[in-house]
Amino acid sequence: GAVVSQHPSRVICKSGTSVKIECRSLDFQATTMFWYRQFPKQSLMLMATSNEGSKATYEQGVEKDKFLINHASLTLSTLTVTSAHPEDSSFYICSARELHVVKSNQPQHFGDGTRLSIL
Amino acid sequence: AQKVTQAQTEISVVEKEDVTLDCVYETRDTTYYLFWYKQPPSGELVFLIRRNSFDEQNEISGRYSWNFQKSTSSFNFTITASQVVDSAVYFCALSELTQGGSEKLVFGKGTKLTVNP
Questions:
Q1: A95 vs B contacts (CB less than 8 Å)
Q2: Which of A2, A113, B26, B34 could be stapled to A93 by a disulfide with Cβ–Cβ 3.0 to 4.6 Å?
Q3: Which residue of A32, A105, A106 is in closest CB contact with B102?
């Protein structure tokens, strides 16, 4: 089945550091990838929709200069948390949407998430 | 705007009991999809089911079953003969078309299920 690899799975770093998270679709092409954020014991909130070769579309309230998204190829999207602070600590999950969704009962495949802790 | 409500924040049952997780949704779309995902303590999201708004047939998969009622905008999930391994947070989600035409998911707040031995 379709596999999405998200790396790293866990990051602990000092305040002020920029952190890059990768989301790769391993065995399918994904023109669209989504980035979600999940605070402890809360739901997943969509941060942005990433389209291959174009600028990401950010949800209301999400700072685009804070959360930089690059989707340079059909199999890779990256999320960079710039100058991270403790309030950015969260669980970040990406998902990738297959090109040919009609063939799939599962239009989005999720990565395993990245747990980010800023000290 | 789309909205998904999971009124049960936490549920605790004893192994072998049946348990139903409720999901109520709001949408103005005539075509939409509903989903259930399982999130174990390790954090990854496990896809359970996707249901088209035009298909109101109930579905059964092993110990899992889903009841989709368009008249009440509900998509409830039942686990029969629950097991300890079923302990997780379960999310109901609704698809929504973005401005760019792609499909994004709106999640409920989740129901934490604890199955005790």
A1: 105
A2: A113
A3: A32
